[in-house]
Amino acid sequence: xxxAMGTRTLSLTFSAAMALLGAGPAxxxxxxxxxxxxxxxxxxxxxxxxxxxxxxxxxxxFVTAQGSITGPNVPTGPKTSVSAAAVxxxxxxxxxxxxxxxxxVIVQPAxxxxxxAPVNFQAAAVHNTYVVPAELSxxxxxxxxxxxxxxxxxxxxxxxxxxxxxxxxxxxxxTFQPEFIxxxxxxxxxxxxxxxxxxxxxxxxTGYRTGDIFHAExxxxxxxDKWTLGPVGYVVSQVSNDQxxxxxxxxxxxxxxxxxxxxxxxxxxxxxxxxxxxxxxEFYSTASxxxxxxxxxxxxxxxxxxxxxxxSYRLWAPDDGAxxxxxxxxx
Length: 331
Prior knowledge:
The chain is mainly beta. Helix content is 3%, strand content 51%.
Protein backbone atom coordinates (compact mmCIF):
# COMPACT_ATOMS: atom_id res chain seq x y z
CA UNK A 1 0.00 0.00 0.00
CA UNK A 2 1.46 3.32 -0.03
CA UNK A 3 1.24 2.99 3.78
CA ALA A 4 -1.32 0.27 4.15
CA MET A 5 -1.51 0.21 0.48
CA GLY A 6 -0.34 -1.48 -2.50
CA THR A 7 1.43 0.36 -5.19
CA ARG A 8 3.39 -1.64 -7.58
CA THR A 9 7.12 -1.76 -7.69
CA LEU A 10 9.11 0.33 -10.08
CA SER A 11 10.37 -2.83 -11.78
CA LEU A 12 7.18 -2.74 -13.85
CA THR A 13 9.33 -0.97 -16.38
CA PHE A 14 11.76 -3.85 -16.83
CA SER A 15 9.22 -6.36 -18.05
CA ALA A 16 7.47 -3.87 -20.30
CA ALA A 17 10.70 -2.56 -21.77
CA MET A 18 12.28 -5.93 -22.44
CA ALA A 19 9.10 -7.26 -24.03
CA LEU A 20 8.96 -4.29 -26.39
CA LEU A 21 12.65 -4.60 -27.21
CA GLY A 22 12.37 -8.32 -27.94
CA ALA A 23 15.18 -9.27 -25.58
CA GLY A 24 13.78 -12.70 -24.84
CA PRO A 25 12.48 -14.39 -21.68
CA ALA A 26 15.06 -13.08 -19.21
CA UNK A 27 12.58 -12.43 -16.43
CA UNK A 28 12.47 -13.03 -12.70
CA UNK A 29 8.67 -13.14 -13.02
CA UNK A 30 6.00 -13.36 -15.70
CA UNK A 31 6.44 -11.08 -18.70
CA UNK A 32 4.51 -7.87 -18.11
CA UNK A 33 4.44 -8.19 -14.30
CA UNK A 34 6.41 -5.66 -12.22
CA UNK A 35 7.78 -8.32 -9.89
CA UNK A 36 5.84 -7.41 -6.73
CA UNK A 37 2.30 -6.35 -5.91
CA UNK A 38 3.39 -3.78 -3.31
CA UNK A 39 5.83 -0.94 -3.88
CA UNK A 40 8.82 -1.49 -1.57
CA UNK A 41 9.08 1.20 1.09
CA UNK A 42 5.44 2.18 0.99
CA UNK A 43 4.67 1.18 4.60
CA UNK A 44 7.55 3.16 6.09
CA UNK A 45 5.58 6.35 6.70
CA UNK A 46 3.22 4.75 9.18
CA UNK A 47 4.65 1.36 9.99
CA UNK A 48 3.90 0.30 13.56
CA UNK A 49 2.58 -2.68 15.47
CA UNK A 50 0.39 -0.36 17.52
CA UNK A 51 -3.24 0.57 16.83
CA UNK A 52 -4.81 4.05 17.18
CA UNK A 53 -7.89 4.70 19.37
CA UNK A 54 -11.28 3.42 18.13
CA UNK A 55 -12.61 5.19 15.07
CA UNK A 56 -12.57 5.30 11.29
CA UNK A 57 -9.41 6.77 9.77
CA UNK A 58 -8.61 7.86 6.24
CA UNK A 59 -5.21 8.26 4.61
CA UNK A 60 -4.03 9.57 1.26
CA UNK A 61 -0.64 8.54 -0.07
CA PHE A 62 1.56 9.60 -2.94
CA VAL A 63 4.81 8.28 -4.39
CA THR A 64 7.18 9.09 -7.21
CA ALA A 65 10.09 6.86 -8.17
CA GLN A 66 12.87 7.55 -10.66
CA GLY A 67 15.48 5.06 -11.82
CA SER A 68 17.03 3.02 -14.59
CA ILE A 69 17.14 -0.61 -15.72
CA THR A 70 20.35 -2.59 -15.31
CA GLY A 71 21.67 -6.14 -14.81
CA PRO A 72 24.86 -8.25 -14.52
CA ASN A 73 25.33 -8.36 -18.31
CA VAL A 74 23.10 -5.44 -19.25
CA PRO A 75 24.46 -1.89 -19.18
CA THR A 76 22.35 0.83 -17.63
CA GLY A 77 19.24 0.98 -19.77
CA PRO A 78 16.25 3.26 -20.27
CA LYS A 79 15.24 5.68 -17.55
CA THR A 80 12.06 4.76 -15.71
CA SER A 81 9.55 6.65 -13.61
CA VAL A 82 6.45 5.76 -11.64
CA SER A 83 3.90 8.01 -9.94
CA ALA A 84 1.14 6.65 -7.74
CA ALA A 85 -1.66 7.74 -5.45
CA ALA A 86 -3.90 5.74 -3.15
CA VAL A 87 -6.77 6.27 -0.76
CA UNK A 88 -7.27 3.99 2.20
CA UNK A 89 -9.41 3.50 5.28
CA UNK A 90 -8.49 2.01 8.65
CA UNK A 91 -11.34 0.65 10.81
CA UNK A 92 -10.72 0.31 14.56
CA UNK A 93 -14.04 -0.77 16.16
CA UNK A 94 -12.60 -1.20 19.66
CA UNK A 95 -12.92 -5.00 19.60
CA UNK A 96 -10.46 -7.33 21.28
CA UNK A 97 -9.65 -10.97 20.57
CA UNK A 98 -7.25 -13.17 22.52
CA UNK A 99 -6.03 -10.06 24.28
CA UNK A 100 -5.28 -8.25 21.00
CA UNK A 101 -6.85 -5.13 19.49
CA UNK A 102 -8.59 -5.74 16.15
CA UNK A 103 -8.51 -3.51 13.07
CA UNK A 104 -9.18 -3.80 9.31
CA VAL A 105 -7.89 -1.91 6.26
CA ILE A 106 -8.98 -1.31 2.66
CA VAL A 107 -6.94 0.58 0.06
CA GLN A 108 -7.48 1.52 -3.58
CA PRO A 109 -4.27 2.43 -5.44
CA ALA A 110 -3.80 3.83 -8.94
CA UNK A 111 -0.59 4.81 -10.71
CA UNK A 112 1.13 5.73 -13.92
CA UNK A 113 4.49 4.61 -15.30
CA UNK A 114 6.83 5.74 -18.02
CA UNK A 115 9.91 4.36 -19.80
CA UNK A 116 12.07 6.79 -21.74
CA ALA A 117 13.47 6.38 -25.27
CA PRO A 118 14.04 4.13 -27.08
CA VAL A 119 11.08 2.30 -25.53
CA ASN A 120 8.74 5.25 -24.89
CA PHE A 121 6.22 3.22 -22.88
CA GLN A 122 3.45 4.79 -20.79
CA ALA A 123 0.63 3.30 -18.74
CA ALA A 124 -1.87 4.70 -16.24
CA ALA A 125 -4.72 2.80 -14.60
CA VAL A 126 -6.16 1.36 -11.37
CA HIS A 127 -4.29 -1.37 -9.52
CA ASN A 128 -5.87 -4.26 -7.60
CA THR A 129 -7.72 -3.37 -4.39
CA TYR A 130 -5.85 -4.22 -1.19
CA VAL A 131 -7.92 -5.58 1.70
CA VAL A 132 -6.84 -6.57 5.21
CA PRO A 133 -9.91 -8.21 6.78
CA ALA A 134 -8.17 -8.64 10.14
CA GLU A 135 -5.11 -7.42 12.00
CA LEU A 136 -4.44 -8.22 15.66
CA SER A 137 -2.15 -6.08 17.82
CA UNK A 138 -0.84 -7.17 21.23
CA UNK A 139 0.62 -4.73 23.75
CA UNK A 140 3.27 -6.50 25.81
CA UNK A 141 2.60 -4.99 29.23
CA UNK A 142 4.42 -1.72 29.98
CA UNK A 143 7.56 -2.74 28.09
CA UNK A 144 6.82 -0.51 25.13
CA UNK A 145 6.81 -3.51 22.80
CA UNK A 146 3.90 -4.35 20.49
CA UNK A 147 3.38 -7.32 18.18
CA UNK A 148 0.94 -7.35 15.28
CA UNK A 149 -0.06 -9.96 12.74
CA UNK A 150 -2.57 -9.98 9.92
CA UNK A 151 -3.37 -11.09 6.39
CA UNK A 152 -3.56 -8.73 3.43
CA UNK A 153 -5.16 -9.68 0.10
CA UNK A 154 -4.79 -8.12 -3.35
CA UNK A 155 -8.10 -8.73 -5.17
CA UNK A 156 -7.84 -9.11 -9.00
CA UNK A 157 -10.23 -6.24 -9.74
CA UNK A 158 -7.84 -3.70 -11.29
CA UNK A 159 -7.54 -2.75 -14.96
CA UNK A 160 -6.68 -6.10 -16.61
CA UNK A 161 -6.02 -6.20 -20.37
CA UNK A 162 -4.25 -8.33 -22.98
CA UNK A 163 -3.92 -12.01 -23.76
CA UNK A 164 -1.91 -12.62 -20.59
CA UNK A 165 -3.86 -10.05 -18.56
CA UNK A 166 -0.79 -7.88 -17.98
CA UNK A 167 -1.12 -5.20 -20.66
CA UNK A 168 -2.41 -2.73 -18.06
CA UNK A 169 -1.89 -2.08 -14.35
CA UNK A 170 -4.04 -4.79 -12.75
CA UNK A 171 -2.95 -8.38 -12.12
CA UNK A 172 -5.22 -11.33 -13.08
CA UNK A 173 -4.51 -13.32 -9.92
CA UNK A 174 -4.87 -13.13 -6.16
CA THR A 175 -1.96 -12.21 -3.91
CA PHE A 176 -2.05 -13.22 -0.24
CA GLN A 177 0.23 -11.26 2.05
CA PRO A 178 0.66 -12.45 5.67
CA GLU A 179 2.47 -9.96 7.90
CA PHE A 180 4.36 -9.91 11.17
CA ILE A 181 5.27 -6.58 12.79
CA UNK A 182 7.27 -5.87 15.95
CA UNK A 183 7.55 -2.36 17.40
CA UNK A 184 9.04 -0.55 20.35
CA UNK A 185 6.80 2.48 20.98
CA UNK A 186 7.85 4.42 24.04
CA UNK A 187 9.21 7.87 24.96
CA UNK A 188 8.60 9.09 21.42
CA UNK A 189 10.50 6.23 19.80
CA UNK A 190 9.16 4.10 16.95
CA UNK A 191 11.51 1.18 16.30
CA UNK A 192 9.67 -1.15 13.93
CA UNK A 193 10.43 -4.20 11.82
CA UNK A 194 7.64 -5.01 9.34
CA UNK A 195 8.05 -8.44 7.72
CA UNK A 196 5.64 -9.70 5.06
CA UNK A 197 5.63 -11.98 2.02
CA UNK A 198 3.59 -12.09 -1.19
CA UNK A 199 2.15 -15.48 -2.20
CA UNK A 200 0.63 -15.41 -5.69
CA UNK A 201 -1.97 -17.71 -7.19
CA UNK A 202 -1.78 -18.69 -10.87
CA UNK A 203 -2.51 -16.15 -13.57
CA UNK A 204 -6.18 -16.75 -14.44
CA UNK A 205 -5.44 -16.30 -18.16
CA THR A 206 -2.07 -18.01 -18.61
CA GLY A 207 -1.71 -20.45 -15.70
CA TYR A 208 1.74 -18.98 -14.92
CA ARG A 209 2.59 -18.52 -11.23
CA THR A 210 5.12 -15.90 -10.14
CA GLY A 211 7.36 -16.88 -7.23
CA ASP A 212 7.02 -15.56 -3.69
CA ILE A 213 8.29 -12.06 -2.86
CA PHE A 214 9.78 -11.31 0.58
CA HIS A 215 9.69 -7.80 2.09
CA ALA A 216 11.38 -6.47 5.23
CA GLU A 217 10.91 -2.79 6.09
CA UNK A 218 12.52 -0.95 9.02
CA UNK A 219 11.79 2.30 10.86
CA UNK A 220 13.84 4.01 13.61
CA UNK A 221 12.22 7.39 14.29
CA UNK A 222 11.99 9.72 17.29
CA UNK A 223 9.22 12.20 18.03
CA UNK A 224 10.22 15.69 19.16
CA ASP A 225 7.08 17.60 20.16
CA LYS A 226 5.13 17.72 16.86
CA TRP A 227 8.08 16.60 14.70
CA THR A 228 9.15 13.02 13.89
CA LEU A 229 12.58 12.28 12.42
CA GLY A 230 14.67 9.20 11.69
CA PRO A 231 16.16 6.68 9.24
CA VAL A 232 14.15 4.11 7.29
CA GLY A 233 15.04 1.27 4.92
CA TYR A 234 13.91 -1.93 3.25
CA VAL A 235 14.93 -5.21 1.63
CA VAL A 236 12.83 -6.89 -1.09
CA SER A 237 13.68 -10.18 -2.78
CA GLN A 238 12.12 -12.94 -4.86
CA VAL A 239 12.64 -16.07 -2.79
CA SER A 240 11.11 -18.88 -4.90
CA ASN A 241 11.08 -19.82 -8.57
CA ASP A 242 8.23 -19.21 -10.98
CA GLN A 243 6.03 -22.04 -12.26
CA UNK A 244 5.34 -21.80 -15.99
CA UNK A 245 2.45 -23.11 -18.11
CA UNK A 246 1.46 -24.26 -21.61
CA UNK A 247 0.71 -20.63 -22.50
CA UNK A 248 4.50 -20.06 -22.54
CA UNK A 249 5.37 -23.62 -23.68
CA UNK A 250 6.44 -24.18 -20.06
CA UNK A 251 9.43 -21.86 -20.47
CA UNK A 252 10.46 -20.40 -17.12
CA UNK A 253 13.53 -18.70 -15.71
CA UNK A 254 14.92 -19.12 -12.22
CA UNK A 255 15.93 -15.46 -12.18
CA UNK A 256 15.75 -13.84 -8.77
CA UNK A 257 16.21 -10.23 -7.72
CA UNK A 258 17.15 -8.45 -4.50
CA UNK A 259 17.05 -4.74 -3.71
CA UNK A 260 18.20 -2.92 -0.56
CA UNK A 261 17.39 0.72 0.16
CA UNK A 262 17.96 3.28 2.90
CA UNK A 263 16.61 6.76 3.50
CA UNK A 264 15.02 9.11 5.98
CA UNK A 265 11.62 10.28 7.23
CA UNK A 266 10.28 13.63 8.44
CA UNK A 267 6.81 13.96 9.95
CA UNK A 268 4.71 16.74 11.46
CA UNK A 269 1.55 16.40 13.54
CA UNK A 270 -0.85 19.28 12.81
CA UNK A 271 -3.40 17.91 15.30
CA UNK A 272 -6.37 16.83 13.17
CA UNK A 273 -4.01 15.85 10.33
CA UNK A 274 -0.62 14.09 10.38
CA UNK A 275 1.86 14.44 7.50
CA UNK A 276 4.81 12.12 6.85
CA UNK A 277 7.34 12.51 4.05
CA UNK A 278 10.14 10.02 3.41
CA UNK A 279 12.61 9.12 0.68
CA UNK A 280 14.71 6.05 -0.09
CA UNK A 281 17.57 5.20 -2.42
CA GLU A 282 18.29 1.66 -3.62
CA PHE A 283 22.03 1.41 -3.04
CA TYR A 284 22.09 -2.31 -3.86
CA SER A 285 20.13 -3.91 -6.72
CA THR A 286 20.93 -7.26 -8.26
CA ALA A 287 19.27 -9.92 -10.43
CA SER A 288 20.54 -13.28 -11.65
CA UNK A 289 19.37 -16.18 -13.78
CA UNK A 290 20.54 -17.72 -17.03
CA UNK A 291 18.54 -17.27 -20.23
CA UNK A 292 18.09 -20.85 -21.53
CA UNK A 293 18.26 -20.02 -25.25
CA UNK A 294 21.37 -17.86 -25.14
CA UNK A 295 23.23 -19.18 -22.11
CA UNK A 296 23.83 -15.58 -21.05
CA UNK A 297 22.57 -14.03 -17.86
CA UNK A 298 20.36 -11.20 -19.10
CA UNK A 299 18.44 -10.74 -15.86
CA UNK A 300 17.68 -7.12 -15.10
CA UNK A 301 16.39 -5.06 -12.21
CA UNK A 302 15.51 -1.44 -11.61
CA UNK A 303 17.81 0.76 -9.52
CA UNK A 304 15.88 3.74 -8.22
CA UNK A 305 15.21 6.42 -5.65
CA UNK A 306 11.70 7.06 -4.37
CA UNK A 307 9.90 9.87 -2.55
CA UNK A 308 6.70 9.26 -0.55
CA UNK A 309 4.12 11.36 1.28
CA UNK A 310 1.20 10.34 3.50
CA UNK A 311 -1.60 12.42 5.01
CA SER A 312 -3.79 10.78 7.66
CA TYR A 313 -6.75 11.87 9.77
CA ARG A 314 -9.66 10.47 11.75
CA LEU A 315 -13.07 10.67 10.09
CA TRP A 316 -15.18 9.43 12.98
CA ALA A 317 -14.79 8.52 16.63
CA PRO A 318 -17.25 6.84 19.02
CA ASP A 319 -16.72 9.60 21.61
CA ASP A 320 -18.77 12.52 20.27
CA GLY A 321 -16.95 15.79 19.94
CA ALA A 322 -13.50 14.23 20.16
CA UNK A 323 -10.85 15.84 18.02
CA UNK A 324 -9.34 13.66 15.31
CA UNK A 325 -6.25 11.87 16.45
CA UNK A 326 -3.08 10.95 14.69
CA UNK A 327 -3.18 7.82 12.55
CA UNK A 328 -0.52 5.13 12.72
CA UNK A 329 -1.33 2.93 9.69
CA UNK A 330 0.45 -0.39 9.43
CA UNK A 331 0.30 -1.18 5.70
